[in-house]
Amino acid sequence: MMTLIAYGTIALLLGITSALAHRRATTRHRDVAADAWVQLQPLLLRLPPALLAGVFLAGLVPEQQVVGLLGEASGAYGVLLATVIGGILPGGPMIAFPLALALLEAGMGVAQMVTLITAWSVLALHRVLVFEAPMMGWRFAGRRLLASLPVAPAAGFLTLAAETVLAG
Q1: Does the residue 154 lie in any domain?
Q2: Do 41 and 74 share a domain, yes or no?
Q3: Cα torsion 161, 111, 157, 121: sign
Q4: Total structural domains in the chain?
């Protein structure tokens, strides 16, 4: 039922934005579709091997340790550990998401996964060291990291709370 509501909401938003775009004389649906196709092509080449890598990684990840450290029952400890792991997880989405998929398949909890992906996208120590600090300066990078640090655990704790409410 929730999936049907989600798909209906997406379809409604798509219809509204399409109607708004159609009203503008400068926007043509053909141009938008062509741009979308150009952006989709690299993903069509990269996504299948990345997903295969995730499946193979799932076979290598020790399930008992993942469940013990990052499973549903790990609670706050798992959320904090997922924050650290996500913050130091290197690479772009073609590396991070197959690894995340492997961890999920091995028994990682949903709240911990939300935390890991949020920490990877917000904290990303590898991007701070390679791009942000050299370009923006260490002072700015440090302040941004400090300000962003609570975001990932907050997302995880909110997910834990939502799971508790939905379960009870």
Answers
A1: yes
A2: no
A3: negative
A4: 2
Q: Are residues 118 and 149 in the same domain?
A: yes
Residue 117 token pair: 């992906």
Q: What is the pTM of this model?
A: 0.70
Instruction: Confirm if 152 and 78 have CB atoms less than 8 A apart.
Output: no
- φ and ψ of 106, to 5 deg: -85, -5
Please report whether residue 56 resides in a domain.
no
Mean model confidence pLDDT for the chain: 86
pLDDT in tens, 23-73: 766 767 788 788 888 888 888 887 788 777 767 776 777 778 888 888 888
Crossing angle, helix 29-60 and helix 2-23, to 10 degrees? Answer: 150
Q: Provide DSSP, 56-96.
A: HHHHHS-HHHHHHHHSGGGHHHHHHHHHHHHHH--S-HHHH
* Residues 65 and 35 reside in one and the same domain: no
Q: Domain range holding 110?
A: 61-167
